# Entry
Amino acid sequence: MRRNQVAVVGAAETTELGVIPNMSQIQLHADAALNAIADAGLKLSDIDGFATAVETPQQMAHYLGITPTWVDGTSVGGCSFMLHVRHAAAAIEAGLCKTVLITHAESGKSMIGKQPRFTAPDSLNGQFESPFGVYGPPSMFPIPVLRFMKTHGITHEQLAMVAVVQREWAAKNPRATMKDPITVADVLNSRMIAYPFRLLQCCLVTDGGGALILTSADRAKDFPQKPVYILGTGESVETPMVSQMKTFDSSRAFRVAGPLAFKEAGIAHKDVDHLMIYDAFAHLPLYGLGDLGFMPHEETGKFIADGNTRPGGKLPLNTNGGGLSYMHSGMYGMYALQESVRQMRGIAPAQVPNAKISVCHGVGGMFAASGTIIFTNEK
Amino acid sequence: MAEPARAKPKATPETQHFWDGTKAGELRLQRCDACANVYFPPRPFCPSCASRKVSIFKASGKGKLYSYVINHRPAAPGFTPPYAIAIVELDEGPRMMSNIIDCPQTPEALELDMPLEVAFEALDDKITLPLFRPAKG
# Structure
C-alpha cells in the first residue's frame, strides 16, 4: 500500500467508559459512531464503507441506518480494528468507497445484548484445549509466559513493572478506570489469577466502544480535525489454539505484522515517537517490543523496568494507561488506535511533545492474530 | 449429576483415531509419508507440505513440560483450583495441552523441562483424556 494516501478524519470513543448499565452492546456501537461522525463533521449518510467485528456489518448497518457499498466483517479478536483500518485504506485507494466508518463496542462488564462465547465440543479448541480447564482469557493468555521468562531471562519484578508504569500514564488520564499509583509490591501481592499472573497484571473488564472514520488524504484537509495519515500497515494470523503456537519465545503473528508495517512505512525504530502495544496481560508489551524489532526480547524486561517507557522516558508506551489501567471492554485494539490518533492530533491527556510517528500494535485472541498500523501527522 | 463436569470433547471424522487411541491406552500422532513431519492436532494431510499421504502411529507417550499456568480463578467447571494447565512437548516434536497429575500444583513442583509420561483418564465410555505425570526414574 502507498504511504499517506488515506487519513483518519474522525475518531471518538463512547460518551462514557467503564460501567455503562443503560446501553446495550449495539447502542454502544451507535454511541461511538455518532460521536465519530460529529467529530468529523459528517452525516451518517456520507458513510459508504463500513467495518465492524463481533456484531455483524449487517446488524450494525441496519441499526445505524446506513447503506454501505463496501463492508468488512473481519473478526479476529481485539486487533480486528487494525485489520479494518488496513483493509479500509486499500478499499479507499482502490476506489471501492470514499468514507469508511469502523466501529467497536462491547458490553464487556454489564453484558447487555452481548452474545455469550461458546466453544463447540467438536471444534479443535473444544477437543484439545477446553477439556484441560482453560476458562476465559486469564487461564489461556499467560500460558506462554513462563517459557518466555526462562528463555529470555525475564523476572517477575520486571513483569510487575509493566503494570506499575502503565498506571503512571493512567494517572494523567481523566477517563482512565484505574488511576491510583501502584508499586511492584502491590502487583506481586495482588490476588493470584493464573500463576504467574496476578490481578494487577490482567486487563480490566469494562463497557465501552470507539469508532474511526477514514477517507482519502486529498479529501482529508477539508475536514475540521487535523488529519492523521496511514503510513504503514501489517496483519497476520497464527492459530486459535495457544497450545499450538510455533514457539512461546515470541509470536509469529507479531513477527509478521509488525515488520510488514515498518517496511511499508519506510521508517526505522528510532523514528518512532509514540508506541501502543495491546496489553491484555503484562507480558504482551515485552513480546511486542521484541517481535516488532525494537530490541532483543532479552532486553525488554529491563527496558521497561528501567523506566524507558514511562512518562518522560525515551519510548512512551501505552500512554492512555493501556488495557491494564485505562479500559478493556474485550477487544481493546480500538482504544489503542484512538490513543494513537489523539497523540497524532496533539490532544492526548498525556500528550507526547512533538510526536510525529505513532506505532499501534494489536493482538487478537491468545496470540491468534495481529495487526499493526503506523500513523503520522506529517504528509 | 450434582457436580458440573469438565468440558467433554466430541470427535470429528478427522480426529476419531486420536480418541480411539486414548481409549485403547495409546497416544496416536500422525506422520507425513512424504516429508516425515510429525504433527498435531489431527488432520488427514500434512500441514507442512500438504501431502495427503500420512500415517497414524503410536507415540512414545514421553515428553517434557514446556510451559504452564496454575489457574486460580475463574475455575472451569469440573476443576478445583488451583490447578495447572500445562503444555507438554512430546519427544516426537508436537506439543499438546494437558494436565499434570500425581504432582503438587505448585511452581516449586512444576519445573519447566521436567520429564513427563502420558496417563489416561476415562471420562465416560467414549472419551478418555491424555493426561501426564512426572516420569518415573
